[in-house]
Specification:
Length: about 150
């Protein structure tokens, strides 16, 4: 540790000079400057698009294509009524941020949280989510709570 500002210097190995290619034989990177002899990659204006394999059929075209991606698919994080039991106090208001804080869910889906009906619920909770299954809504209300769609 430097005891004076005048003795400060960077940590050993933290600063290196950049490699200057094409600056003479003595540098070790002269003449062809690491580009080899002739060929497309040795030229100054080379642009080879990603995935190009020199005229060989590219891997993306050689592999079989299967299925499709539904761009209209909904992205919900799914939880069950049983996951709420023991995690919250009676009368608590449970929304997607409270679920994340409590560690019930690891991520919030693009379209929110959907509550399904598996498991038992004995405490009254006000649950706010994007969607509820009919069984989940019935179980929450049977325990004296409310299921609110947001």
């Amino acid at each position: 540790m430097a005891d004076e500002l005048s003795r400060l210097q960077p940590a050993p190995g933290s600063q290196t000079t950049r490699k200057r290619i094409g600056r003479g034989q003595g540098s070790g990177w002269g003449k062809t400057a690491g580009r080899g002899q002739k060929g497309q990659r040795s030229r100054s204006s080379v642009h080879i698009r990603p995935g190009f394999e020199g005229g060989q059929m590219p891997l993306t075209r050689r592999l079989p294509k299967r299925g499709f991606t539904n761009v209209f698919a909904k992205d919900f994080t799914i939880i069950n009524v049983g996951d709420l039991e023991g995690r919250f106090e009676a009368g608590a208001e449970v929304d997607m941020f409270a679920l994340k804080r409590a560690g019930v869910i690891s991520r919030i889906g693009r379209d929110g949280v959907k509550v399904l009906g598996r498991g038992e619920l004995t405490i009254a909770l006000t649950v706010k989510a994007a969607r509820f299954s009919a069984a989940a809504k019935a179980r929450i209300e049977a325990a004296g709570g409310k299921a609110e769609a947001v």
